[in-house]
Amino acid sequence: MNNILYFLQERLSDGLLSWAAQKEAAELFGLSYATVEELALENGMFPARYQRNRNMISVTEQLKLYRSKVAVIGCGGLGGYIIEELARLGIGGIVAIDPDIFEEHNLNRQLLSSPGALGKAKVEAALARVNEVNPAVTVTPIKDAFCTANGPELLKGVTVAVDALDSIAYRLELAETCTELEIPMVHGAIGGWYGHVATQLPGDTTVQSIYRNWVEGKGIEKQLGNPAFTPAVVASLEVAEVCKIILGKGELLRNRKLSIDLLDMEIHEISYDVPVELVSAA
After folding, report:
1. Is the Cβ–Cβ distance between 219 and 195 less than 8 Å?
2. pLDDT digits over 11-38, tens only?
3. Domains, the chain, ranges and CATH?
4. Residue 224 belongs to what H/E stretch?
């Protein structure tokens, strides 16, 4: 172990460890990229890929991000951007859950899609993309549909669950499962020019409140469709919430929903009642 640390420290420049040095260490000592990255962060060495993070995220916090596991449920319009941003942020473990393959109508907005990927599983594209942009991140691809029956197994050991689904019914099942497992959930939804984001911590019922009048059907996305830009905006807000949850920083979108109108460039905040038990405990 001392030999590895010496090797890495000898290659530091301004406290930064280059990808070339990480790659060389992995090959020389027979280690995975993940092991080398964690070892570097544990010993105060900032991988150079994260150097633009370090004015806002300390090396200790970067290690905390790296040791986190985030489940992304849905790998389409929202999910593709979320997975990409989580990997670039430095989340060490990503569980990508989606039962679908890419179809031609995905090409206008889904980051992981391409003509060459048509007919391929979305979760496999997620794995390939993360291996390309940040090989130190471990992706677990699960080609399955999320539901309450398999939810506890799919979310086992997860730090945060991120909703990138296109079904209200499954969203509500995800919210229920996260409550049971006491996992924070970041909710996002899109449709046409519009989207919204909310964060639900264990014990909250924000997602259930948002859809309290829902009867049946997939929701507004099916009716309005989605352009290229709406998923990117909402996904970025979701990833920001994930980062804040893990680091315990900032003000979360808790008990409130951020509603985004990109047509008129308006953002509105809608508050939801805080559960009585939380008020009593305050």
Report:
1. no
2. 999 999 999 999 999 999 999 999 999 9
3. 2-62 (no CATH), 68-281 (3.40.50.720)
4. helix 220-224
